[in-house]
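[step 3/7] fold_predict: job queued, chain A
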Amino acid sequence: MKKYIPQLTILLFISLFISCAQPRQNPRELTEEQLKIDEIIWNSTFTDLDGNEVSVQDYKGKVVLIDFWETWCGPCLQVFPAMDSLRKEYKDDFAVFAVNLQDGDTPEEVQAFMEEKGYDFNFLLDTNLIGPKVISFGIPFKIFVDPDGYLIQAEVGSRGTEGDYLKAKAIIEENKQS
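[step 4/7] structure written:
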């Protein structure tokens, strides 16, 4: 009997640990598709232009926009001036992940675009192929995440610079931490 005591102790400890672990529970009511996006994004990483991994979890405390785009996508580029304005306005509360899908762009083209435009974004590459797992219909595909890392909204398209600005500003105001 004595030889089983260490194994029983270990099993008891593991079961206690598992039973006390809190599952990640989103406070919002989401559709099945939204829950899928929420889980994928929470567990995803992207690669910056220096080769470093970046994740939403690194930006806890901020509203994060993950914007999947390509340099050839006119509507994608309409979103950027609005988001750049909001980054200046909400520097401590808002982050932008401009995630290039690399369907038609090389990392060098993304780097050149970033240098030319000077937007205050995290320019990232979709090296782990997250875009195909979450994008519905096309790009620009935008995912807004709250300061706790939960999905606020996922949408395709652009409302034009002013429309994107107003929509994103309302999301930031409603979700930023005081």
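[step 5/7] annotate
Residues 30-175 form a domain with the Glutaredoxin fold (CATH 3.40.30.10).
The chain has one domain: 30-175.
exit 0
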